């Protein structure tokens, strides 16, 4: 069946429903009233809702609010930085296991805050991570002394082995083991035992580190480190835009899932990290995030999905000068 449509009736019906035809547009454009634009419909706010402080424990929520007030920044920035710092302090000591399913997840996070320059990102990071910096500064002097003593003993044992090898260079006439050869093997055992006792210098938070250096740091710190920064150096390093043209996202992927990582070292035996724990909390500019998204393989391999993103509201022009310090 063919239905005939009256053009005039169709045009009237379209106009009745608020639609404009080509002729209407031409008439509107040429009329004096065309300069009077209707109020534009506002776009959706890309920042979304503010961080829910009531989701945090009372003391922690009050602390986040105090940091945000002191730095005159959105609470989102202080909240995310605080979560990252807590993750760093936990240091991979805890895991969550699903009920009877063998589903085990490490308790640490990867966070990225996106903000334009001038939003005091570094001030927030410095304020929140100060307790960890103080702890590192307190324990490192004694650890550096212990490490220096270990290195001194290492050199002594290496020389002892070298001397024992020289003395044992001439075996007995009958080819049997001699006391000199037994001394050489004892020197080997002593040296290897000492190498196994290598002390560490505590470092929890890193900043401008390459993916390769992050793996070595994980091995040095018994499998757990944190990259917390108000700058984008680490993500730029993994994207292959600073020290190397080749992207390297492996440490992010493995460090989030708690996978095993093998670290090969020059002059030292390879080390295996059974369950890597890499916390990341960085505050970057939008261009850096776009650069990382264009990095080959980052999105496809699940790198983007491992991060909790935060785009805080812009409070430039609304800051107070006289503020209360964090108690």
Provide a brief overview of the structure:
Helix content is 45%, strand content 13%. With 327 residues, it is of the alpha/beta class.
Question: What does the secondary structure layout of this molecule look like, with pairings?
Answer:
Layout: H1 7-16, H2 22-30, H3 58-71, H4 75-90, E1 95-97, E2 104-106, E3 110-114, H5 121-167, H6 179-196, E4 205-206, H7 211-220, E5 224-229, H8 233-239, H9 250-257, E6 261-265, E7 268-273, E8 277-284, H10 286-294, E9 308-310
Protein architecture, described:
- The chain has 10 helices and 9 strands.
- The protein is α/β, with parallel strands linked by helices and 327 residues long.
- The protein folds into 2 domains: 53-140 and 202-310, 3-Layer(aba) Sandwich (Rossmann fold), CATH 3.40.50; 144-196.
- A hairpin with a 2-residue loop joins β6 (261-265) and β7.
- α3 packs across α4 (75-90), α4 packs parallel to α5 (121-167) and α8 (233-239) packs parallel to α10.
- The protein is elongated, with a radius of gyration of 31 Å.
- It starts with 6 loop residues before the first helix and ends in a 17-residue tail after the last strand.
- The relative contact order is 0.15.
- The mean pLDDT is 83.
Distance N to C terminus: 81 Å
Main CATH class of the largest domain: Alpha Beta
The run of helices and strands is HHHHEEEHHEHEHHEEEHE
Structural class by secondary-structure content = alpha/beta
In the CATH hierarchy, the architecture of the largest domain is 3-Layer(aba) Sandwich
Categorize the overall geometry: elongated
Average pLDDT reading: 83
> Can you count the beta strands?
9
Number of domains: 2
Helix content: 40-55%
């Amino acid at each position: 069946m063919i239905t005939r449509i009256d053009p005039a009736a169709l045009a009237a019906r379209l106009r009745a429903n608020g639609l404009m035809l080509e002729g209407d547009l031409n008439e509107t454009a040429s009329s004096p009233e065309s300069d009077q634009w209707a109020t534009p419909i506002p776009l959706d706010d890309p920042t979304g809702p503010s961080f829910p402080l009531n989701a945090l424990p009372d003391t922690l929520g009050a602390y986040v609010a105090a940091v945000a007030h002191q730095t005159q920044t959105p609470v989102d920035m202080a909240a995310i930085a605080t979560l990252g710092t807590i993750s760093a302090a936990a240091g991979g000591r805890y895991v969550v296991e699903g009920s009877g399913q063998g589903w085990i997840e490490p308790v640490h996070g990867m966070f990225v805050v996106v903000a334009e320059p001038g939003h005091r990102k570094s001030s927030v990071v410095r304020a929140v991570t100060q307790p960890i910096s103080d702890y590192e500064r307190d324990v490192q002097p004694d650890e550096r002394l212990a490490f220096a003593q270990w290195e001194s003993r290492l050199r002594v044992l290496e020389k002892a082995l070298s001397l024992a090898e020289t003395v044992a260079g001439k075996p007995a006439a009958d080819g049997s083991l001699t006391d000199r050869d037994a001394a050489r093997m004892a020197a080997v055992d002593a040296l290897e035992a000492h190498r196994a006792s290598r002390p560490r210098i505590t470092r929890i938070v890193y900043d401008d580190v390459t993916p390769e250096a992050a793996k070595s740091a994980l091995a040095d710190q018994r499998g757990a480190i944190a990259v917390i920064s108000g700058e984008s150096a680490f993500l730029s390093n993994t994207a292959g835009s600073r020290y190397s043209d080749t992207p390297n996202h492996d440490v992010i992927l493995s460090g989030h899932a708690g996978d095993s990582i093998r670290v090969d070292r020059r002059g030292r035996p390879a080390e295996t990290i059974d369950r890597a724990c890499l916390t990341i909390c960085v505050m970057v500019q939008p261009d850096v995030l776009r650069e990382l998204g264009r990095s080959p393989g980052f999105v496809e391999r699940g790198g983007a999905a491992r991060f909790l993103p935060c785009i805080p509201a812009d409070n430039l022009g609304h800051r107070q000068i006289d503020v209360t310090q964090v108690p």
